[in-house]
Amino acid sequence: MVDSSALFEYLLRLGDNALILGHRLSEWCGHSPALEEDLALSNVALDLIGQTQLWLNLAGEVEGRGRNADNLAYLRDARDFRNVLLVEQPNGDFAATMARQFLFDAWHYLLLRELTGSKDARIAEIAAKGLKEVTYHLERSRDWVLRLGDGTEESHRRMQAAIDDLWMYTGELFESDEVDQAMVREGLGPDFATLHEPWLGLVRATAEEATLTLPQPGWAQRGGKRGLHSEHLGYILADLQFLQRAYPNATW
Amino acid sequence: MYAQMVKTGVDHIQSKEEMSPEERAFQDRVDQDIKIEPKEWMPEAYRKTLIRQISQHAHSEIIGMQPEGNWITRAPTLERKAILLAKVQDEAGHGLYLYCAAETLGVSRDDLMEQLNSGKAKYSSIFNYPTLTWADIGAIGWLVDGAAIMNQVPLQRCSYGPYSRAMIRICKEESFHQRQGYDIMMKLAKGSSEQKAMAQDALNRWWWPSLMMFGPSDAESVHSAQSMRWKIKINSNDELRQKFVDQTVPQAEYLGLTVPDPDLKWNAERGHYEFGEINWDEFYQVIAGNGPCNRDRLRTRVKAYEEGRWVREAADAYAAKKAARAQAKAA
């Protein structure tokens, strides 16, 4: 039987990744390069907000202290957030947003695919729903890496810079700690190290087709999963949580 | 309305005798409620007026994304955030349908966007007011979308096919928008005293600008008369405004909020509410660019457009390369 506090922690990680990336994408609404992109980025953000609700509601249920997805999203401070550092990175230009999305989607896709085989039916069910959405997210972000990488000189330069910039946040995606290991032991989730090879294969093939060069393996920034974040997260939460903090116990 | 004071370029309404045979045949079709389709002959003034009206409407949808978009990252719950994001996304979709409808009249979306960005094209006065609190998101859905629906429902029957069909799609979504706005207001009105005060404050600030959306009285306007003859305008501004007031006042009462108009009273004889004088000076100032947010709205739009230019160029370049490769392969 898996330790419920480890499972809670694991579900927070899944939920927080979706929450923070969905939030970042929602910042684009009304500011993107074309109306079609306002629609598409919002679609992806909406999917991620939906996944957040499912993961965090389950986390609250597992925790058993009466907290729901909103309580967890709106009333925790930065040190209690468990998303990977990659998703909280600022939107930057459109290339940075799409590079971040592609690097994450490729991992997210592989992870959800594994989670559909989780021994916990609740996890498997959420993963199956999410996988359908993320399959499309990946198709779309991959397409933009190709278009920008192999588009104009300027778009190539911007996409290359974005990949170079974000690369150090990808190492964290494949590390396992005692929480992840507990999930592996109980058959609830995959060993993250096993996702690295298929992920790199997909990323490398895409980069090649997009005429981009992948950076050499180097130092990985890590800490998000344990609540050690960049300075960016605090500002995300300041926006996200403003009303809930300013008017405690109000219903909306 | 989303399109306000649209000029037709005419100085009087032609009688049937003054019309050319083509014009007469066109007007007969309109009179018989036969839809005009893009490839058919139409008077140049009709085409130009429609372009102005549809593009103004489209621009309003696009600029309208900003005041509400302002609260997407601060929406108070995950559900509210998803609903608001979906709503603003719908507005982008409406803009897209409308630009497409305008394109059937021989203009390009890029040209229309350039007109908006240069400040030459107009959009609805309402979107030049700021969203200061969460209650403003409720008030916009309830009042602004409510006012828009008043105008758009009859426009589903307008004479130009592509515009009419765009309106049918848009109206389906607008009624959901209005309900979500009213639902936000309801939650606030039944919430804490602070929330109730927030709702009242939003109503105070949005009421009069919402009434201005319908535009000044057009009973004497030759442009309105011509547009109505062409069936691209169905009701007068005053009719729609009255309808809006009659519908909205009981809703405010139900919320327990006070409409900020000391002259508002029910006239049983007329079966309508009487309401106070609208500050048209404010309206003309906002239209002229002096509203609280005109400059920010336009700058934000131009910034998004300019910063997106390299992306659009890259997408075009990539598509061209891909097509060239496919062609080389086929050869």
UniProtKB/TrEMBL annotation, chain A:
It is an enzyme of class 1 (oxidoreductase). InterPro entries: Aromatic_CoA_ox/epox, Ferritin-like, Ferritin-like_SF, PaaA_PaaC, PaaC. Keywords: Oxidoreductase. One of its GO terms (molecular function) is phenylacetyl-CoA 1,2-epoxidase activity. This is Ring-1,2-phenylacetyl-CoA epoxidase subunit PaaC. It comes from the Bacteria. One of its GO terms (cellular component) is cytosol. Its EC number is 1.14.13.149. One of its GO terms (biological process) is phenylacetate catabolic process.
Automatic annotation (TrEMBL), chain B:
This is Ring-1,2-phenylacetyl-CoA epoxidase subunit PaaA. It comes from the Bacteria. One of its GO terms (molecular function) is phenylacetyl-CoA 1,2-epoxidase activity. One of its GO terms (cellular component) is cytosol. Its EC number is 1.14.13.149. The keyword Oxidoreductase applies. InterPro entries: Aromatic_CoA_ox/epox, Ferritin-like, Ferritin-like_SF, PaaA, PaaA_PaaC. PANTHER family: 1,2-PHENYLACETYL-COA EPOXIDASE, SUBUNIT A, PHENYLACETIC ACID DEGRADATION PROTEIN PAA. Pfam families: PaaA_PaaC (PF05138). Keywords: Oxidoreductase. One of its GO terms (biological process) is phenylacetate catabolic process.
